[in-house]
Every structure is written in C-alpha cells, then in structure tokens.
Amino acid sequence: MLTLYDYLPSHNGWKVRVLLGLCSIPARVEPVAIFAGESRTEAFLKLNPAGAIPVLELEDGRAIAESNAILAYLGEGTRFLPDDRFVRAKVMQWLFFEQYYVEPVIGSLRFWTLTGRLTRNAALVEGKRETGVRALAALQRQLSATQFLAGDGFTIADIAVYAYSHRAGDCGFDLAAYPAVETWVDQVAAEIGPGYPIHPYGDEARVE
To answer: Does residue 208 carry a pLDDT above 90?
Structure first.
C-alpha cells in the first residue's frame, strides 16, 4: 500500500488526498509533526531531501516529493491527466503557475494570517498581495474562456490551483471580484465532492 506522509492543515497534502480519493487508490496516511521537527529527521530527509511534506512512498520504498509531482504520478493513465500532448502541456503550465504564483503567495499569506505571522513578515506582505491579485486576474482571464484550466475537462491542474486559491478569502482576497474564478471554484467543488475537509492549523502552528 502507498504511504502518504502528510500534515493535515497543508493544502499541498490536501491536493494529494483528493486525487487519491477520486482515483479510489488506497493509501496509509502517516502524519508528520512538522513544527516538532519530524520533517527534519534523518529518516524523513531520506524520503525528501528538502524536508517538506507531502511525500508519497511507493510499495517498493521509493518516494516522490512535491505535491504536483505526486499529482502527475497518480494521475497517469486517468482522466485527470489526459494523453493529448497539448492538453498535458497545458496541465503542466498551470501546475507550474500554481507553484510560482499561488502556493507561495496566497498559500503563504493564508498561513501567516491564520497563525499570527503577518507582523513578523510585514515587509513581504504588500509584494505578495500584489502578486496574488495578478494571479487571480490571470485565472479570471483564463476561466472566462474555458470551463477548466486546461480546457473543457477537469484535470489535476484544477485540483492543484484550487487547493489554495479557493481559500483566498482567508487572507483578504475577495473572490467576488473574479466572477469566472468563483464559477470555477463551484465547478471544481462539485467535481471533487464531499469528504475532503479543510483542517485548521492547531496551536502548534501559531506564534501569537
């Protein structure tokens, strides 16, 4: 059985849990207490030298890190990663977009907001907010033309980008200003369905 090393409040881990569920792939979830240093142990660093979750360990002991790489691995051969060469490239385009414009921007601002870290990161907040606005505007332009990010079909690109962008309101972004994004959020939620709860950060993550 696959093993997913995860920290439940992380939406990077959430992405993977969603795809495992949609593909009906059984996996054992191994919680990692990242704030207690469990992701920096020698054993964990052998799984992922960067010391971050999620990590997917295969049945033979090999491991894959980085959430979007895991999505690509799990999505292979499914409807969530189409065979068409152009569509696959578009999926990759949005996976890269997510890791550059969404996760380190909206994801970081959300984490700082919910765990009391905005003040200590005050010098970075304005720049991240500006980038977040550009990211949401880019999504608005794309989703005004297509139902889903890579075209008319729901793919791992939608799962990846949705993970943090649909929670943008948690850190002050108003999705009502992006009606095509709001429509897409509803469509992705319908595709995913229930059963994938959002886990709040616990006291171990808070600093204020």
So the answer is: no
Instruction: Measure the CA–CA gap between 96 and 92, rounded to whole angstroms.
Output: 6
Q: Tell me how long the chain is.
A: 208
Q: What total number of domains does the chain contain?
A: 2
If asked whether residues 42 and 117 sit together in one domain, one would say no
- Taking alpha carbons only, the member of 169, 177, 158, 176 closest to residue 198 is 169
Q: What is the pLDDT of residue 198?
A: 95
89 and 179 part of one domain: yes
Q: How would residue 68 be classed by pLDDT, with cut points 50, 70 and 90?
A: very high
Whole-structure pTM value: 0.97
Question: Are residue 38 and residue 13 in the same domain, yes or no?
Answer: yes
Q: Decide: 4 and 14 in contact? Cβ < 8 Å.
A: no
